[in-house]
Automatic annotation (TrEMBL):
This is Protein YjdM. SUPFAM superfamilies: Prokaryotic SH3-related domain, Zinc beta-ribbon. Residues 46-113 form the Protein YjdM C-terminal domain. Residues 4-32 form the Protein YjdM N-terminal domain. Belongs to the YjdM family. PANTHER family: PROTEIN YJDM, PROTEIN YJDM-RELATED. It comes from the Bacteria. NCBIfam families: phnA (TIGR00686).
Length: 113
């Protein structure tokens, strides 16, 4: 009997291990063994540019000039962003920047303040 967990997407019992990943043979969903050890795929691990773990409500500092798409505005290096919220997707930080307004940032362009 396999001690591997059921698939978090389709709840299939037919999962298998491949290297550091666990794969569902029915829906092809993949997740890491670390996520299994931490209690499932529900755990979001988002890190800043330095590898520090980010959480909702943290303050971060922008480490690179970022052009705001569709405008001539730029978020300058050193801009401090307070009270971030982590979301799923490519841009994984949802925040409000003074003078610009609400926007989404990638965690690779910020460091924990």
């Amino acid at each position: 009997m396999s001690d591997l967990p059921h698939c978090p997407k389709c709840n299939s019992e037919y999962t298998y291990e491949d290297g550091g990943m666990v794969i569902c043979s029915e829906c092809a969903h993949e997740w890491s063994k670390d996520a299994v050890a931490e209690g499932g795929d529900d755990v979001r691990i988002i890190k800043d540019a330095n590898g520090n773990l980010l959480q909702d409500g943290d303050s971060v500092t922008v480490i690179k000039d970022l052009k705001v798409k569709g405008t001539s505005l730029v978020v300058k290096v050193g801009t401090k962003v307070k009270n971030i919220r982590l979301v799923d997707g490519d841009h994984d930080i949802d925040c409000k920047i003074d003078g610009i307004g609400p926007m989404k940032l990638k965690s690779e362009f910020v460091k924990k303040a």
